[in-house]
Amino acid sequence: MTFPVVGRLVDAINAHDLDAIAATFASDFTSVWPAHPARSFDGPQNVRKNWEFIFAQFPDIRIAVTGSVESADEFWGEFHYVRPGAADLRGVIIIKVRGDEIVESRFFMEEVEEGAVPHPMPGVVR
């Protein structure tokens, strides 16, 4: 990974280390959820609160980056969140980096559907 801060973040999440998680984010960090705007928030203190809540709900959660593309200051990663006892999450997170800190994350994450579900677009065949 060209951006060691992303590797540190993944390691900190998998270690459930709240201090190390918060330390990867800049003081002016912004979390954006384009499809779910009410989930957006600012600041590393809110990142910490968010993960504290997640760890309480899913004490065995683990994450992995399953694919990625990097540019000058962005990491586009495909993430897989394994939440034992609940649906997995999969999706893309676009992480903007400044120096060795994360300044913005744009989340496109969804729960993985179980079983066969109808295609959401009429006329499209699998």
TrEMBL record:
<dbReference type="InterPro" id="IPR037401">
    <property type="entry name" value="SnoaL-like"/>
</dbReference>
<protein>
    <submittedName>
        <fullName>Nuclear transport factor 2 family protein</fullName>
    </submittedName>
</protein>
<feature type="domain" description="SnoaL-like">
    <location>
        <begin position="6"/>
        <end position="104"/>
    </location>
</feature>
<dbReference type="InterPro" id="IPR032710">
    <property type="entry name" value="NTF2-like_dom_sf"/>
</dbReference>
<dbReference type="Pfam" id="PF12680">
    <property type="entry name" value="SnoaL_2"/>
</dbReference>
